[in-house]
Amino acid sequence: MIRPHDLLRLNWPVTPATAPRWVVLALCRTPWVVARRALAAEGRVAVGVRGPHRAQRFALDVPLDAVAAVLPPEALTARAHTLRAELPAVRALHAVRPRLDRTGLRWGPGGSVGFELATGLPAITRDSDLDIVLRVEHPPPLAELAAVQASLQDLSVRVDCQLDAPWGAVALAELLSGADRVLLRTPNGPRLVWTETLT
After folding, report:
1. CA–CA separation, 183 vs 168, rounded Å?
2. For labelling, which of 29, 70, 89, 169 has a CA lying 20 to 30 Å from the CA of 108?
3. Which domain holds residue 66?
4. Is residue 1 part of a domain?
5. How far apart are CA 15 and CA 35, in angstroms?
6. Residues forming beta bridges with residue 189, ordered by sequence position
7. What is the DSSP letter of 147?
8. What's the mean pLDDT in 88-112?
9. Separation of alpha carbons 188 and 168, rounded Å
10. Which of 29, 53, 71 is a domain's end point?
């Protein structure tokens, strides 16, 4: 099952005629896209194309049979040694890896770090954050999540950790903030939900 944040390698061009030229060039450079949290028609999957610049993101749907390979974030950590070690986000990834591995939770990098791990193309900059995806079926106890959050606090870059479940995703920091309601990202769009329904 394809889930949001999974990296998908396409086996043929799927760009619509209305796509900007940079989208065509990006997919010629590397045929990888990122699965989005959005609804798609039967037999299709919602994806996003990453361009070389931060503002270059393009959403589209592609046929499932155009997907040649799927790399979930949790499959990418084994490739961490291939990254440019001098970058702050990469140093942060190496620092958090043993900490998160000890939790027994399924996790992996998303964002620019995940994209570079999947494609081998430079995507991480000196200003990149480290995006972490925690894959769960049901939210773990809050004490366990609080320990995860604490382990991410002493790093030199901002770490955006997202709890990703089949029914939606929520920022870990927001879930632990003590707020009565949090923003849940769902395939139907973001909505505010009572925190107690997620814990």
Report:
1. 10
2. 29
3. 7-71
4. no
5. 15
6. 186
7. H
8. 95
9. 10
10. 71
| Joined tokens for residue 107 | 């996790």
Domain shared by 95 and 152, yes or no: yes
Band of pLDDT at residue 15, cut at 50, 70 and 90: confident
Name, in order, each residue with C-beta under 8 angstroms of 66's C-beta and a sequence gap of 6 or more: 10, 11, 12, 14
- Amino acid (one-letter) located at 78: A
By the 8 A CB rule, do 87 and 112 touch?
Answer: no
SS3 17: coil
Structure tokens at 60: 């589209």
Task: Indicate whether 2 belongs to any domain.
Answer: no
Mean pLDDT of the chain: 94
Q: Is 171 helix (H, G, I), strand (E, B) or coil?
A: strand
pLDDT in tens, 146-183: 999 999 988 989 999 999 998 899 999 999 999 999 99
Q: Is 79 within the bounds of a domain?
A: yes
What pairing do the DSSP bridges indicate for beta strands 159-165 and 130-135?
Answer: parallel
